[in-house]
Design goal:
Serine Threonine Protein Phosphatase 5, Tetratricopeptide repeat, about 325 residues, single chain
Length: about 325
Amino acid sequence: MLKRTLIIVSITAALVVVAAPMQRAHGILISKAEWAKINSVDAPATDNSEKQASRGNGFVNALKAPFKAISRLFSHGKKDNNKLQRISEKDARKFESAPATKVKNTTIIKDNAAEDSLGSQKTTALEHLEKGRALLNSGDLNAAIAELSTAASLDPKSGEAHTLLGVAYDRKGLRDRAQQSFEIAVHAPDDKAMHLNNLGYFFYKHGDYDEAIKYLKRAAKLAPDDQRVWNNLGMAQCGVEKFDDGYKSFAHAADEFQGRLKVAAYEERQGFAKDAIKQLEKARKLKPDSAEVLERLAVLYDSAGRANDAIDARASLSALRTVAAAPKQ
């Protein structure tokens, strides 16, 4: 009886030992073999809720587990659209585009800074220009040249700076440098007609009338109503004895009467007394009571041997002065 009891107890214990791992395998504990099966490529998910959980937490799992383990979690034992893929080159370029925007913004900021710097530079150039102008007017040529050179260096497109620098060099006796400055000013975008006029007048001053006419004609086309340009052109034309052209230019600058007077003055100065008399006689017809015309005619009549005409001119001049001196009633 005792022997039978011991056998039954032994059999029961053995059954308990065998049953334990089977229960743990289905519930609480999993053996190494079973864990290997679960993590194998062909291991299926247990139910739909596990599928949804694995999909929903995919990004979190991607940060916590190696790539190989993640691929198994999303494989469900077969290839499908839910399988995690590596980033394509196209997607990579999309991510890399973000820094490019920042670089572009930085470039814009730099460009704005450059524009601000350029504006400040022009302000400084203007300050040097005004200082140079004041020094030029006061006769301090060396200091004026220093200031105007700085202004022209800071703002190379300033025609005014180069023009004033040309004036300073010219007064200093540095003709070549003066001409160079005037020529640079001609290419400036501001007030082109006036820069052409200044260069033309520079050539006129130094007796190069043909060059003067060339630039002054260009200036006249750009500024057809500018009296200074036409007056300078008339002087240059008279310089090469083109008196008819000179008259037209002077008349364009003022009127016919003034044109006749100016041409007569150049003709008289250059030894063309007879031509000067003709111009003054035409001017006298326009203004018979002009004291200036009568005075010049009397002198020229005498030099030409026309005594009677000289007497007549002086008589007319005397009568004119008597009327002017008489008290008004």
